[in-house]
Design goal:
The chain is α+β, with helices and mostly antiparallel strands. It is built from 3 helices and 6 strands, in the order ααββαββββ.
Length: 121
């Protein structure tokens, strides 16, 4: 699976809000870091953290605008649209950096300010 295919598959699982499917893209000992939140280690911990995050939103959609791969490093640039609990939506810029091991991700990092997704009046 090339980096573009992996990115599409990963974000399809996230957009379907299937935390276990998402976590299965990680290696057994994979780490997941979202912004400045504490990192999770392993698939089960990552699935729990992602499930908790999904509980705070009504929906999510990722629109990929670029994928770059250099050796084992993949960078994905995207826009993420969050459907808030109050029915409104907000689209935010995001970058992901992954360290790949074969078709799995050993180190998954999300760089974005997600606070606007949870701020509404």
């Amino acid at each position: 699976m090339n980096a573009q295919e992996l990115a599409k598959a990963v974000f399809a699982a996230v957009d379907a809000q299937k935390p276990e499917d998402f976590a299965n893209f990680l290696t057994e000992d994979g780490t997941f870091t979202f912004g400045n939140w504490p990192a999770t280690e392993g698939r089960a911990a990552t699935a729990r953290a992602v499930s908790d995050f999904f509980a705070g939103i009504d929906g999510i959609r990722h629109d990929i605008s670029g994928v770059w791969e250099e050796g084992e490093t993949v960078i994905v640039r995207l826009a993420v649209t969050y459907r808030r609990k109050n029915g409104t939506s907000v689209t935010l810029p995001c970058a992901n950096i992954w360290k790949r091991v074969g078709d799995k991700i050993q180190d998954y990092r999300i760089y974005m300010d997600v606070n606007p997704a949870f701020a509404w009046s």
